[in-house]
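Revision sheet: structure tokens.
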Amino acid sequence: MNYLDITVVVSPGTEGAFAVRVESSQGGQGHSTLKLPFTLRDLAGAVFGVAQTARALSSHTMQEVGRSDESAADTRSAADFGVALYEALFQGDARDVLTATISEAENHVDTGVRIRLWVDLQGPGMAEVASLPWELMCRRGQQALALSKKTPVVRALDAPQKTEPQPF
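Predicted:
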């Protein structure tokens, strides 16, 4: 399988949001703003089977601050979180770059789009962004991108030069 690479760089932004830059030699360059669609606590409750503990913690915390409403996040499936991540990351210009790159890949036999996700770990709030399960990303009604050979999602490291895979 051959791949067209698309690089997604997430950096600290302003007002609780994150700056997103998407680049592909086939689709050009785009920018967007990422606002996290859920918290790690929401995700832990729904995806990792600790919903009751998360609800109890949320209720206790909410009572301390005078709120009694509970989040419905624990009723969402892993696919729901994947759609939320996809839609939060790929919007506007960033979505257009991805769409153009996928269209170009479809014009070639045995060609897919490798999504390289690079997160600036040095910035404030970036640890939570890096901790999210980006591999769950999916378009509404479809399987996770990472489950298809045509759209692998890989996390890239900040390396001073291109690295080559070592024989296993």
